[in-house]
Amino acid sequence: MIDNEQPVLQAYKIGDISLKNRVIMAPMTRSRADNKDHAPTEMHVKYYTQRAGAGLIITEGSQVSERGVGYINTPGIYTDAQVQGWKKVTAAVHEKEGKIVIQLWHVGRVSHPKFHNGEKPLAPSAVNPNMKVYTPEGFEQTTDPKEMTIQEIQEMVQEFRNAASQAKVAGFDGVEIHSSNGYLFHQFFNKNSNLRTDDYGGSIPNRARFFFEVLDAILEVWPENRVSCRFNPSLNGIFGITATDESIATFDYIIDKLNAYNLAYVHLSEPFNDVSDIPFLETNIAKHYRPIYKGTLMINADFDQESANKVIEEGNADLVSFAKLFISNPDLPERFRHHWPLADWDNDTFYTAGSKGYTDYPAYEEKEVS
To answer: What CA–CA distances, in Å, run from 155 to 4, 28, 115, 211, 230?
Structure first.
């Protein structure tokens, strides 16, 4: 049965980019850049090209500088070797008539001195996230980070700008700022991780200042309708972030202020865990932010075909991004279209080296004739 009338399979336009459907491939760390350059390889080319049927591919988070690294074997977008690797990816995806944007990433304090020649990771304040990160020697407990100086903040703004410029050279259709999930921007937003008393701390506008400075710097390189950003407003107890009574108010301020920009989209996540017993957090992010944000809204986290169609049909989102479903179902839009069964993913191969669990999930029709 072919079902082309589903909301998720309808075409959509973000700025001047036409999407063939609203089934978006979410950014997912896969740790396959296991080479000295931390550059994409032919394996990345195959992985992303297999999934070019998505309305839009958002790449895995790619660090904007060496200082942004917090995980092993994650690709960057700040050296010529990395740009050359990504060029092959974008060219292959475009050849398959796909669209692809890169997610610009800096982990902040979610890192370890072993990634930085013994130096402490940078963060808004010297507050330890008290979590374990995976280093070349295995899991290690995080340390107190180094509080960024004003000069280091200004340097970081330029690192994001430079990475955005490199992304343009690499042939991407746009960039997404990873301002979510407890990483650097989120650390500035949260008053438990940001104890600053200067222009980057204290009030909600001050805690959002760094993000908007980065956004404005990227807009010197890219037109507004090729730039997007991702947020996780109700994140709590994950990635070292403890939500506060100002969490939602902070994101209300940021997302409302983004109405002054003509961005490609704003990408939001529903809560990663149950927050229904926390009165100051939102349990339905799409429903809360749809009236606030007037532009294109993308929603993420544990959606399936039915719930994705429903959230679009109800008008609470325009696009839906899928993560794990895209790992094991490279032809996900076609599986939705034909109501074909979905393949299960293998958790054990999410972050391992090699093609197993990465490029060896077949498309449904390929599997049927094998």
So the answer is: 48, 27, 19, 13, 22
